[in-house]
Every structure is written in C-alpha cells, then in structure tokens.
Design brief:
Blueprint (H helix, E strand, L loop, with lengths): L11 H16 L6 H29 L3 H25 L6 H29 L2 E2 L2 H20 L14 H25 L25 H35 L5 H24 L3 H26 L13 H18 L3 E2 L1 H19 L2
C-alpha cells in the first residue's frame, strides 16, 4: 500500500520530485541530445511514480471520494498548462491539439482506466462490484460535457470548420464549468455515499484501509511534493515533446498522435493509482479516478483553453471527425451497459480495452 506512511521528505519519493524539478530548470528551453532525452525520460517515469505515492498518502488522509479528486484536479490543471504552452509555440498545426488531447483523455479514462480496473477487480474477486448510482451520474456528466464540447462544433454553421463561434464557445465553457461544479458537489457533499467503495453484497465501505491515516503534517508535505512531481511530469514531458513530434513526423503518423502521447503521459499517475485501488478491492475508488479524471479533463480544460484563445495565435478547433464520434457513441453505450448492473466480469473490462485499442489503431491509421 502506502510505503510505511513515514515522512515523505525522507523517502525516495520526496527527493526525486525535487531532483526532477532541478533537471527541468537545467534543460528548459534547450535542444536536448539523445543521452539527455533518455535521462529526462527516466526522471519523468520516476516523477510519475512519486506523484502516485503522494496522491495515495493524501487520499488516505482525507478519505474517499475526496482523495480521488486530488490527483484528477491537479493533473488536469497541469494538463491545461501543457496544452496552452504547446499551442502557443506550435502554430497552425496545433489548432486541434486541445481537442485531440481532451478526446484522448476521455478515451483513455473511460475505456483504458475503467477497462483495466474492471479487469483487475474482477480477476481478483471474480466480480468487480461498484455503486451504480454514483458511477452512472459520473458517466452522464462526462457524456453531456463531451457532447456539448466535442460533438456540437462539428455541426454548427456560424463559423467555418469544426469550430464554435465566440458566443457558442462561451456557452460551452460555462456549461462545462457548471456541470463540473455540480459533479464535485454531488460527489463530495450531497451524495457522497454514492461514490464510496462497496462490498460484494452491496454494503458501503465507509472506513479507510487498515493502516492509520498519515498525520496532517505528512499529508501537507505530500501535497507540496505532489505539486512538484506534477510540475516535473508536465515540464519534462514538454522537454521530450519535440523528440515525440519528430518521431511522429518521421514515422508518417497523423499529428493527433501527439495529443495521445500527451494524454498518456499526463494520465499515467492516475492509471497506476486506479489499478492499485482495484487490486485492493476498491473498484469504486478506481472508477472515481477514471470518470472523475475524464470529467475534470473536459470540465476544466475546455473553459481554460477557451479563455486562453484571447491571446493564443491560433484558432481553437474542437469538433470531432466522424470516426471519433462513432467511438465516443460506442464508449457511452458500452459504459452505460457496464454501469447499470453495478457489477462487472472480465468481459466488460475486455470490451472497454478493445474500444481503446480501436481508437489507437484508428489514430495511427485513420
């Protein structure tokens, strides 16, 4: 579980985020040779593991479902910074970067994280059990915000191309913010019990794990180190992004693959944390992380990027293409059928992972 809950500053997970930030400062804005790219990639992986550890410490202190929000919101804030930075530097070819990254985040969370967690939970206990009320509410919120932000722009006629006009973009941004606020309120205040883990008999598990919660001082130290680790993750990811883009171009792949790479890097901490929770028979916690991350990714990223268009030199392209809309519709349909029973077998996990695989294949070979 959480490594002894001792002071995070004295643990390797305390030293590594600091070292990663120092490396980020030394390499920022520079063209990196191959040896440095390898070194940066190693520290990037270490920062991801450190972020997972500190997120688990904080989650253990505050309990569910508050703990699931910590990593989701923190990662999304950093994701926004990365998207805006790359759009500011990337010119016209980055106009669809926000759309590609957000949609990749939705597919990775709703199919990748959810599929892996259902598979891990069901293989552990034969049947993965979760709360259908809370999970269904989260899926409904994700579906609505994704439809308003990523599907509607393809069919509007006020502005040429799959783009919103300014009034439409303001509405979509405000709707995303309001729905995200309602989602968080529902999850943490009014219907908190809908998002707590349940036993195989359907009883809510309101207590924490067997280990004593960390002290407030330890949790605050972990919060600061989590912030450092996430800054390092995104900063180092930006440092290696030119190598990623060069590799994508050299391989003759579509530019949307860059958005997938960004989403995979940013969501890696949440994926690891979610799978660990599923293996501890806390499938609901895993689903909170997966669907909560999808909701945060759309509900916070779209408004932030919409605001950033005031000074960004490129237009904001949000509308999905036909194949991506089909994949989104399949994801929503399969997700609904998965949620309704409140329990899942390895089959459901495999179906979600198949949809993610289809998305990646079509992204590489449209």
């Amino acid at each position: 579980m959480i490594a002894g809950l001792r002071s995070p500053v004295l643990h390797w997970t305390g030293a590594l985020p600091v070292m990663a930030v120092v490396l980020l400062a030394l390499t920022w804005g520079r063209s990196l040779p191959l040896a440095l790219i390898v070194l940066v990639s190693c520290f990037l992986a270490g920062a991801v593991l450190a972020a997972v550890h500190h997120a688990e410490v904080i989650a253990h202190r505050v309990g569910e479902p508050f703990g699931s929000l910590v990593l989701a919101v923190a990662v999304t804030i950093i994701e926004v910074a990365l998207i805006v930075t790359l759009m500011a530097d990337g010119g016209e070819k980055s106009a669809a970067l926000a759309r590609d990254t957000v949609f990749a985040a939705v597919m990775i969370t709703c199919n990748g994280i959810v599929g892996l967690c259902l598979l891990a939970g069901s293989l552990q206990r034969k049947v993965a059990v979760f709360n259908a009320e809370g999970t269904g509410a989260a899926l409904a919120a994700v579906t609505t915000v994704a439809g308003l932000s990523l599907v509607l722009p393809t069919f509007t006629t006020s502005t040429p191309g799959p783009r919103f006009s300014t009034p439409q973009l303001i509405f979509a941004a405000l709707a995303a913010l309001v729905l995200y606020g309602l989602f968080v309120t529902t999850q943490t205040v009014r219907h908190r019990d809908y998002f707590l883990p349940v036993t195989t008999s359907g009883e809510v598990i309101s207590g924490t794990d067997h280990a004593d919660p960390p002290s407030a001082r330890t949790a605050m130290a972990s919060l600061g180190l989590l912030a450092l680790a996430l800054v390092a993750v995104v900063g180092l990811a930006k440092a290696v992004s030119p190598a990623i883009e060069a590799g994508v171009i050299a391989a003759g792949l579509p530019s949307s693959v860059v958005g997938i790479a960004i989403a995979l890097l940013v969501l890696l901490p949440e994926t690891i944390a979610a799978v660990r929770a599923a293996r501890r028979d806390r499938v609901q916690t895993s689903l909170n992380l997966g669907l909560g991350s999808a909701m945060a990714s759309i509900g916070l990223t779209i408004p932030a990027v919409a605001l950033a268009t005031v000074w960004l030199p490129v237009p904001l392209v949000l509308g999905l293409g036909a194949s991506h809309m089909v994949l989104l519709a399949l994801t929503v349909t399969v997700g609904t059928l998965t949620v309704i029973p409140g329990r899942a077998t390895p089959l459901q996990g495999g179906v979600h992972l198949a949809l993610l695989a289809a998305y990646i294949v079509l992204a590489v070979s449209p």
